[in-house]
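Exam prep: given the inputs below (a chain plus uracil), describe the expected output before reading on.
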Amino acid sequence: MALIRLDKLLSQNGERTRSESARLIRSGCVTVGGAAVRDPSAKVDADANPVAINGRAVTDEPFQYIVLHKPAGVLTAARDRSARTVMDLVPEALRRRDVLPVGRLDKDTTGLLMLTNDGELAHRLLSPRRHVPKEYLAVVDGPLTQADADAFALGLRLSDFTALPAGLTVLESTESQSRALVTLSEGKFHQVKRMFEARGREVLTLHRQRFGPLRLDMPLGAWRSLTAAEVRLLREAAQLAQD
Ligand code: URA
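Solution:
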């Protein structure tokens, strides 16, 4: 890597502005090659002398990968004039970096939502051709039977398309209510709700607990960055070459 000003290096991945970077450097928590540097204009070669903030390595990784636990009542949208969106759940620094939801969950659906600015990976994770499984826990308003599971497995015909074969595992079925796991490899608008509707059932609650190799592991409303290992698994699931 060529020499670059330290404040520029810290701001170029979008996590903070140039002036925020300069403040951070002056405060003494930035090290270059292990030694504190307090001059924002210092020229550094980050390959030869790794830069860290409070001991955490700074990379120039262009992509961000986030997972969050979406609460009900929050829109899956980049922005909305009046409603709260999933982007309100993540820090401003990520919004500045064009991080966007991968697909969408309905306003009343809870669960795992991934966000990234890696458009190619996002596109592939959603493509029905890649068969990346998305698993939902659904509560519906009546009994479910093997006939429902068979119909899901065959590929339900809906008004405007025929769904790809889907998994339906009934966990509990009573006359008034049932709980089931649904596994889809595509994600059309209101798809789970429409598939149950085609079987005469209304979805009362819907929760996504798995997205490809990712499982929901955090409280409602929380978010975290994916680990490098998780990103590798996602790229594998999306049939993308590893870097
Ligand atoms: N299917 C639905 O009907 N809604 C969702 O939010 C996700 C899948």
